Amino acid sequence: VLGLTVVTADGRIIKTGGRARKSSAGYDLTRLFIGAEGTLGIITEIALRLYGVPEAIAAAVCQFDSLENAVNTVIVAMQTGIPVARIELLDDVQMDACIRYSKLEGFAVAPTLFFEFHGSAGAVDEQAAAMQAITAEFGGSAFQWATQAEDRTRLWKARHAAYYAALALKPGMTGFATDACVPISRLAQCIMETKADIAKSGLTAPILGHVGDGNFHLVILFDNTISGERARAEALATSVSLRAIAMGGTCTGEHGIGWHKLDVLVQEHGEAVDLMRSIKRALDPHNIMNPGKTVPLD
Amino acid sequence: VLGLTVVTADGRIIKTGGRARKSSAGYDLTRLFIGAEGTLGIITEIALRLYGVPEAIAAAVCQFDSLENAVNTVIVAMQTGIPVARIELLDDVQMDACIRYSKLEGFAVAPTLFFEFHGSAGAVDEQAAAMQAITAEFGGSAFQWATQAEDRTRLWKARHAAYYAALALKPGMTGFATDACVPISRLAQCIMETKADIAKSGLTAPILGHVGDGNFHLVILFDNTISGERARAEALATSVSLRAIAMGGTCTGEHGIGWHKLDVLVQEHGEAVDLMRSIKRALDPHNIMNPGKTVPLD
After folding, report:
1. Is the pTM of this model over 0.90?
2. Which of A107, A157, A242, B88 shows its CA 20 to 30 Å from the CA of B171?
3. How many angstroms separate the Cα of A18 from the Cα of each of A28, B36, B190, B221?
4. In this complex, do B122 and A123 lie within 8 Å of one another by their Cβ atoms?
5. Residue A155, C-beta contacts closer than 8 angstroms, at least 6 positions apart
6. φ, ψ for residue A17 (rounded to 5)?
7. What is the DSSP letter of A184?
8. A49 — contact with chain B (CB < 8 Å)?
9. Average pLDDT for consecutive 10-residue bins of chain A (298 residues)?
């Protein structure tokens, strides 16, 4: 994001940036408004930096015997510095849901990584070969390739429908998503402990994630008509947030705080929340911008 | 930058982020303190994300008949999306200064690009070949390669000494740097108009820049003992800032505002400066943090 047009609480229309790739002119208002969830002003225009379509794109799927092996593959790949454009993890439960919902054929109900490689044809081949060397070390299956645009679209469509696929596992139930993000080095421990928590909870909660960033989600499914089941789901979600924070990570990699995570925000940021509160009061003194969200005012 | 430890104006010690690669937990205090030039708090610790040393690194120098051809090479390279790790421009005056000061041999006094390519050995070859095809189109010389670490160090040392090399052009004179950054598409026009302004001013002002970002600097040399010469230098610097702003860019790509550019900050950001002022007053009500800098309070 290069810059924004924002309507402020006192009705002014301001621009936070120009079209230059970088700037150090004054405070970085662009980053302040991004992720403020509308609590500091209303974003009405966004100037984005565009990237060209890569010369070559290839997607591949690799399946594993264990979740731990799948995650350790990602850790080694990141630490080796292979420039993978996307790495998505789906655990066995999520893969099962996607196979059924999106009618994916030829895949096992097993922990799975979806990869996408971008670059010149030569660079894509090289990245893929480096990645295959790592997956082989962790007992990963042969890559199933999707080099044609329509095959890639089918795969990523299935990935994007993962939330609906998860809901379809238990028709009539409600689902909500968690959003932990941890340092890559802690990712395997974090996901394995989370998987054990899910088992203990007795709930169904598929795991999927943008694991190249150390970011993963559960979709926690629960039956709103059964007394206490929402509370169990909430407890599971809170344990995921607190574990991520304890590991030096965050309770939200990309979804934001909303009102649901106001408590864990304080756990994560401590006294820094006082500064956020000061900024909120300075820019929106009458609390008219998305009140009650993102930063607890009391 | 993943996170900071900051001492606030009221004496608290806060942490703005953890070790996760991304977070959307509350307002982005990390980006707010970065570039605030100490006016909102004192940064005492920085958590950085580290990158591995690339498998292969190669540096190359290419010289041009005209400044415009050198800059247009960069524009096409950026628009083509070649992932060059560094592209540095030195105009004829700066190149002359560097050749003399750093005793660079085998180079002409001519507009010059320094390139650095990072990646696997194959990727570096590929990037370099793609870049050579573009430089050839604009009449660039054959690449002079520096693949050995010591040759690269010699080149980049000369580049890093550019400011001192510029000062050495006119012993006893004072120099100050400008810092325009414009959209890549306007870079050639911006630099050529600036070069004409320098000629009109009668001052010596070599041009060098991180042109892959659209960012370039002049080192404007002037004689403080000659009446009116500082004013001429200031006028030239202001014209560079205002031209960058008029082209959708910024008066400072990386140096910051300090007290010298408080006026042009207002030209660039307009009413957004009121928001910066509100933030400054909220976080430092007694104006004890680097007072007078970055944001004009009146």
Report:
1. yes
2. B88
3. 12, 18, 15, 29
4. yes
5. A59, A61, A104, A114, A146
6. -170, 170
7. G
8. no
9. 96 94 96 97 96 92 98 95 93 97 94 95 93 98 91 92 97 96 96 98 96 97 95 97 97 96 96 97 98 95
